[in-house]
Amino acid sequence: LKMPWYLFYLPLHLLTAAFLCHSVKVTTTSSQKSFKTDLFNFYHSLILADGKETTIHLLKDIPKRYYFALEEGRALAPFTITVTPCDVPIEWSILVQKASAPFLGKVARGDPDTQEVSTSQKASSMASTIFNYKGNSVETYMGMSSHSALYMLEFLSTERDTHITVYLTTDMTSGHLYPELPLDPRIDVIGVGHTTVTLTWKHSPSVLQHRENIQYCLLVNEKHNYKSLCAAETAIRSSGMKLPPTLALSLSSYLLEPQQVMILSNSELSIINKVSSGEVRQICLGTKNTYTVPNLSPSTQYYFDVFVVNLLANASAAYTGTFARTLEEPEPKVTELKEGKVIQVVLDEKNQKFYSMQYQARHKKIQFTFQLCRGQVQVHIEKNGKTVASENISGLRYFSLRGKLLDTYLVKLRSTEESNSSVKVQVAPRFHKPLFPLLPESLKIKSFSKLRTCNSITIAWLGTQEDSKYCVYKKRIEDDQAWMELQRTDRCSGPESRHKSEKVLCKYFYDRNLQRAVTTETIKGLNAGTLYLFDVYLSGPSGIPIRYHSKVVKTRKNC
């Protein structure tokens, strides 16, 4: 069954009649009926729906055409077409084919004469282009439609496969699918900090008229601005992420990917996507038109896009995007280290920046000493700008370094825990009198289970070859306090920080043979079935004490 050329130019309501009339002389078989049905469905898929947003998928370098015409019985009517590219730039145009009403009527009856067909066939090659556009911006065309004209929309993507959305409407009285933008749709940057940018924009007229159905959504990224929410979502998905639809912003309706973080605070919903080019944030703000974007990186350029969204129709309009660069991070304050002097540094867990100290060497051989008081601390040492040591320290740690006179050393400290950390620091020549006493191989306290009774505990600890003073302290604690007591212990504090009632004894001892430098002590007068915390303090010639690791032991309940 050959199809006349003019069927390609008929609107849907005439296409069916013309096709049926043209095929009246053909014997009707089941296969021909099936063919008619398939052909009808094929053309139906190419007719652009009125009043509905249509998603169109384009293959690279293959044009796609859609048609529309005014419904029969209407003379002239305005119409608008809005095309939204969702990825790469596209080319699109609107063509119009004129046809006389008598001719369309004859086609509907199935009796156009040969001359009219020939004339119209020649005219078909002369369809006029009334609009064309190339780019990736959202573009709207407004025109006047006639029932004696067939309109064709042609779309082409020359870069890669992509998709677009097209919205056609001839009803100008039922309101707008897309929210309206203000006369000045720019986003203004009114404040820039090290980690924040403050933005403001003029209200959409749609927000003022339909406040309950309209909201603003802000998109933040480090790559570039997006001209539509559709384009932004496509870019994020192409990075392996799943961005939730704007309509599905309730926590119960969207399952986050492992690379996503959802934050809900002060009725603002933020979704952070981790992508290869940095993180992309989508923040929905309700109807607020001023917002300070927090938690940005210093000295980084960010791009900001605001979309006003119709929640009922899931349609959006984009403000003109902007960008801003956060301020450079201020140079950290550097403390001067004085030779031989001990300083104690408290590191805030909320501030993960390094605390910096500087020392200019007066000797070729120097030694840095670090005593960890609380938490966990990372130590980083540079000499003349080059790293010479970097590690997480525990307990007491020495770094012996060799260099030249006037070498500049920079010491950086940072807490690696979620709680405050504290450390003591000293730098001195290597031949300088030791700040801390000679330490044993281990600072652990051992208790003997077999020697444990209802009112006594026996403990032991290692000593050194140097005659030193050891003081033992005990503290009664509750069963559920043990972990907390151990966590908040200040390992740099000395016996002076303890209550006098907690002191058990002090004694001196040493042994030239390290294998025999062990001492034991039995603490009596304890309560049965009670938990105790035991501490041993070692004091050397310098007078600065070293605290052994605390030991928690419970006396027997029954004896």
TrEMBL record:
Gene3D superfamilies: Immunoglobulins. Keywords: Glycoprotein, Neurogenesis, Repeat, Secreted, Signal. It is found in: Secreted. Residues 179-316, 437-545 form the Fibronectin type-III domain. GO terms for biological process: nervous system development. SMART domains: FN3. Secretory protein that plays a role in various cellular processes. Acts as a chemorepellent acting on gonadotropin-releasing hormone (GnRH) expressing neurons regulating their migration to the hypothalamus. Also promotes neuron migration, growth and survival as well as neurite outgrowth and is involved in the development of the olfactory system. May also act through the regulation of growth factors activity and downstream signaling. Also regulates extracellular matrix assembly and cell adhesiveness. This is Protein NDNF. It comes from Baryphthengus martii. The lineage of its organism: Eukaryota, Metazoa, Chordata, Craniata, Vertebrata. The gene is Ndnf_0.
